Recover the amino acids of this structure.
């Protein structure tokens, strides 16, 4: 059995299917409910304003966030600056052909999760023109380990979401403008 899910819903559906396949439907349902509770909690505590977030899966070429990461950014209270690319299922389709487009979209936060190698914020900050972004100006460059967020399973919905919430909370604390979002 091969799973090829790309969204939060896909992750939850995979847990359900896998649980049924191995005779652990009840345990799978408990895990699904825990994941849904994590998402609901994150959404309920999200503050405004919502910072613009650039999530980079790879640096050369620059690849933006897959759909479930984009959805988790939104749940944590941020706004993915490339939501249209997140809809693309494969990494090749999420390549950012013009690095200046990141600069034009003015991310408040930059998060790197480079599979297999350490995120280097100083290299990101040194990219031509990137010093003009609010994220670089305010030193809001973070790493989330790929095992925490880029593996399409429960860890993304617990550890990855938690890290996103912490990063966005840090941004709010630095800007001292957390107003609880209603509705």
């Amino acid at each position: 059995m091969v799973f090829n899910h790309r969204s939060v819903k896909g992750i939850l559906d995979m847990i359900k299917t896998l649980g049924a396949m191995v005779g652990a439907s009840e345990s799978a349902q408990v895990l699904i409910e825990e994941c849904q509770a994590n998402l609901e909690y994150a959404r309920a505590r999200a503050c405004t304003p919502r910072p613009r977030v650039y999530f980079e899966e790879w640096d050369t070429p620059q690849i933006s966030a897959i759909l479930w990461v984009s959805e988790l950014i939104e749940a944590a209270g941020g706004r993915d600056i490339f939501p249209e690319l997140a809809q693309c299922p494969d990494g090749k389709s999420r390549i950012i052909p013009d690095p200046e487009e990141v600069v034009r979209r003015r991310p408040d936060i930059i998060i790197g999760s480079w599979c297999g190698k350490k995120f280097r914020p100083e290299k990101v900050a040194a990219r031509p023109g990137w010093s003009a972004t609010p994220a670089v100006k305010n030193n809001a460059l973070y790493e989330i380990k790929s095992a925490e967020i880029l593996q399409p399973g429960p860890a993304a919905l617990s550890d990855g979401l938690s890290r996103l919430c912490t990063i966005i909370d840090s941004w709010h604390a630095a800007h001292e403008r957390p107003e609880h979002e209603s509705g």
